[in-house]
Amino acid sequence: FRLALIQLHVSAVKSDNLQRACELVREASAKGAKVVALPECFNSPYGTQYFKGYAEKIPGESTQKLSETAKECNIYLVGGRSIPEEDGGKLYNTCTVFGPDGAMLAKHRKVHLFDINIPGKIQFKESETLSPGNSLSMFDTPYCKVGLGICYDIRFAEMAQIYGQKGCQLLIYPGAFNLTTGPAHWELLQRGRAVDNQVYVATVSPARDEKASYVAWGHSTVVNPWGEVIAKAGAEETVVYTDIDLKKLAEIRQQIPILSQKRCDVYGIEMKK
């Protein structure tokens, strides 16, 4: 099946972001994409100072539009972090998924908050305004089961391993790595998660905006279960297409059967919630 990653240029105007995102989703659908993913924070600038002002409840204006577009295009739409989600007085970094009938199939709240300090380069603390999610999120399609993470979640290998154990063959991480962590770890982490679990890994970033207060790395990418980069964007706004070949995935798992060779009598990782 064809997967499309929409590397959107994000402005400060929410309505413009939403309209442009839906235009590109329709374009991707017209080119045969069956699963379409939007980047982290596609509907607002990325920064703790913006989250409260752009926050919405779910369901709300943005998720309603995503639902309608998924139904119109008859696709599975992974809504990046459409907006900071407001619920019970707390804000969450949330990714919603809608099916071809417009129904919401999953709502993933970012489990690991991006709190880092690299002296002289970047300091960021999502926990100043956001609360963490407390569960992992998967959804089924006629093609395969898909596991979800958001950006910083990709650094935690245990999460991807559990998705693999639960039968996921594709992991999608809407993300917004920056100009410090992007060149160093963006591709490395994706290839590691793919090889470790013999799954496809897709990451979808906003386009780079050098004038923004937080500059995203871009380079939305798809990696196959052999660890090969099979599709990759540059820094500009674009749509990346790739065909997910589940026959190839099955062949790799047969050739190197690590999933059946795990020593569960010696070690194990479990999902608690």
Observed structural traits:
alpha/beta, 6-stranded mixed β-sheet, globular, C-N_Hydrolase_sf, single chain, 15 strands, 273 residues, Nitrilase/N-carbamoyl-D-aminoacid amidohydrolase, omega-amidase activity, omega-amidase, 7-stranded mixed β-sheet, 7 helices, EC 3.5.1.3
Word description of this protein:
The protein is an alpha/beta fold and 273 residues long. It has a single domain (2-256), classed as Carbon-nitrogen hydrolase (Nitrilase/N-carbamoyl-D-aminoacid amidohydrolase, 4-Layer Sandwich), CATH 3.60.110.10. The chain is built from seven helices and 15 strands. The strands form three sheets. Strands 1, 2, 3, 4, 5, 6 and 15 form a seven-stranded mixed sheet that branches. It has a six-stranded mixed sheet with strand order 9-10-11-12-13-14, with helices on one face. Strands 7-8 form a two-stranded antiparallel ribbon. The protein is globular. The protein starts with a strand and ends in a 12-residue tail after the last helix. One of its GO terms (biological process) is glutamine metabolic process. Keywords: Hydrolase. One of its GO terms (molecular function) is omega-amidase activity.
Describe the global form.
globular
Name the helix and strand elements from N-terminus to C-terminus, one letter apiece. EHEHHEEEEEEEEHEHEEEEHH
- State the helical fraction: 25-40%
Number of strands: 15
CATH topology: the name is Nitrilase/N-carbamoyl-D-aminoacid amidohydrolase
What percentage of the residues does DSSP assign to strands (E)? 25-35%
Distance between the termini: 31 Å
What is the mean predicted local confidence, pLDDT? Answer: 95
| Global Rg | 17 Å
Give the second-level CATH assignment, the architecture: 4-Layer Sandwich
- Regarding quaternary structure, what we see is single chain
Largest pleated sheet: 7 strands, mixed
For CATH, the homologous superfamily is named as: Carbon-nitrogen hydrolase
Which consecutive residue ranges, at least 5 long each, have pLDDT under 50?
none
Number of helices: 7
**The top level CATH class name:** Alpha Beta
Number of domains: 1
The secondary structure category is: alpha/beta
